[in-house]
Amino acid sequence: MKIIVGIATAGRAPVLAETLRDLAHQRRQPDEVVVCAPSEEDMAGAADAYAGVRLMTGPRGLTRQRNAIIAAVPDADVVMFFDDDFLADADYLSAVERCMQANERVVVATGTVLADGINGPGLSVAEGRAILAARGHETAPPDARPVFTGYGCNMALRLGPMRAHGLTFDERLPLYGWQEDVDLSRRLAAHGDVVLLADARGVHLGVKRGRGSGVRLGYSQVANPLYIAAKGEGYPRSRAWNHIIRNLMANTAKALRPEPYVDRRGRLVGNMLAFRDLVRGQISPERASLL
């Protein structure tokens, strides 16, 4: 089985280099590592961090960069997408290969996140490595249980069904993507199983640098779920609205005293602009890029 690790990145070259260094410790080495970024500056130090890494420049935007990686590996069986700030346990790729070989129905496999800095101020590389070291002695069963969606920071995709059915990441979801993992997972779920692997473990640092405007993200928090649900491809409107309301309530409640690492006021403004466009019948994911 040919497994490619793909990393889409922008504006976080130092973290990317550390993530690539960690990949060298995988017991099952990837057959190739492909990194796609808007500019060479975004990948500074990457070539020294992982021998043989393929560096590509492409259009800015998570979905576009990930599609560029898939297009660049036409003979791959699986693309393992890691975020540029995801540190994988040394047995991660072994667990993915074991699962994909044992069950051909698995089309998306996502790992167990031991700690997620996205929910707080973020974790340093040293903190992430310490968490992995502390949990590395624990034995996890090779268990794969069904889940609604893969988590984009660590998501393995079987490419056969994607090629057969013409499936790609939706490039109408601009910038950081926001829910692009849910969208593709639900479209692939029509052709196989989406699973969570207990023995593929890692830490998502949740680095805040390079994540862009809070206003744009706030707009996407409303526009993207509604757009995905309107496709009618396995993402219920009720789930979309639950997601929107949860984010709106959090942004409203914390706007007066926001966390120092979250632009709550910007997100709330973006939420309101999206609702304005919804009432006017002008809402679309692409409009976030114009804010």
UniProtKB/TrEMBL annotation:
Q: Provide the Glycosyltransferase 2-like domain boundaries.
A: 5-113
Q: Which SUPFAM superfamilies match?
A: Nucleotide-diphospho-sugar transferases (SSF53448)
- Name of the protein this chain belongs to: Glycosyltransferase 2-like domain-containing protein
Please report the organism this UniProt entry assigns to the protein. Answer: Gluconacetobacter sacchari DSM 12717
For this protein's source organism, the top of the classification is: Bacteria, Pseudomonadati, Pseudomonadota, Alphaproteobacteria, Acetobacterales
